[in-house]
Amino acid sequence: MECPYCHQKMEKGVIYGHRSALKWIEESRDKGPFISQFQKGIKLTDAWDLNELETYYCRDCQKMIIDVDIKSNII
Ligand SMILES: [Zn+2]
Fold first, then answer.
1. What's the structural domain count of the chain?
2. Each residue's pLDDT tens digit, 45-75
3. In which domain, by residue range, is 20 found?
4. Which end of the chain offers a freer environment for a tag, N or C, measured as fewer CB atoms within 10 Å?
């Protein structure tokens, strides 16, 4: 994947979650990490199945890009 900022090749890697799934919650609804597991959001990993997130990283720009499977992850 090409970095959209500097156009260099990005490194592929993985982010591992631990006990609960990683989830994106918009800032206006965020109530902190303890409440997040009960809130709706975009689920990025599944703690029961595959609690890892494929990620592309640009070391120069310090940016990461992830793909979001929107079909199955709004909870
Ligand atoms: Zn870059």
1. 1
2. 887 778 889 999 999 999 999 988 766 555 5
3. 11-66
4. C
